[in-house]
Amino acid sequence: MKHTLLIKDWLGSFLSLLFPRCCLVCGRPLAKGEECICTMCNINLPRTNYHLQEDNPVEQLFWGKVPLERATSFFFYRKGSDFRQILHQLKYGGRKELGATMGRYMASELLPSGFFKGIDVIIPVPLHKKKQQLRGYNQSEWIVRGIAAVTGISVNTESIIRRKNTETQTRKSTFERWENVDGIFELHSSEHLQGKHVLIVDDVLTTGATTVACASALMEVQGIRISILTLAVAE
After folding, report:
1. What gap in Å lies between CA 77 and CA 25, rounded to an integer?
2. What is the distance of C-alpha 167 from the center of its chain?
3. Helix axes 96-110, 84-92, angle to 10 degrees
4. Cα–Cα dist 217/171, whole Å
5. pLDDT tens digits for 159-217?
6. Alpha-carbon distance 49 to 75, whole Å?
7. What is the pLDDT of residues 123-140, one digit of tens each?
8. How many CA atoms lie within 13 Å of 112's alpha carbon, on the beta-carbon side?
């Protein structure tokens, strides 16, 4: 057994020399124990720290639209920033494991603040089945895997479905974004969510239109309470 482990370590080191794992942000080779982004880039990640701020800008974005317990985003998504590669590779580069890694990073930092206190279940914003088949995965589900690994909170991917395959929101105006997601989600076997505190998780927050549409569908459940968490928020 010990001999086998030594061979695996040697082989891993040899492969790392030939095909070094590189930081998604700066492109430098990752050291042993680093995942996806290097320690320096992790330190420099433009964190919002909104989870430490009552009535923070993310919560304010939902005022008058969804009654919330709390809401936050982990880091700022800025045009031209090297950190945009995290979301780009997660959504379009096939790097689904990046979602779980960033989910763990995010949950580990938010956990001491009490952000997850009282939350019963986590629900990732669903993709339409055709879009998920094309991409091969739902990036929000992978973020949730990382969060659940740290918090131990159960995950629900069955109670809400996306019944409309909408166009991408990327180049739409604010009004068009809201119009594009109107009524796209519906509940499915949600009885066990009654009276529960649900955390909705998505990858990036822009106008909040998609998240509000998801939350609005969930608000049909009796006694439900809702919080929202996204990996990033656009500036």
Report:
1. 13
2. 20
3. 130
4. 25
5. 999 987 665 545 555 555 555 667 789 998 888 999 999 999 999 999 999 999 999 99
6. 8
7. 999 998 898 999 999 999
8. 4
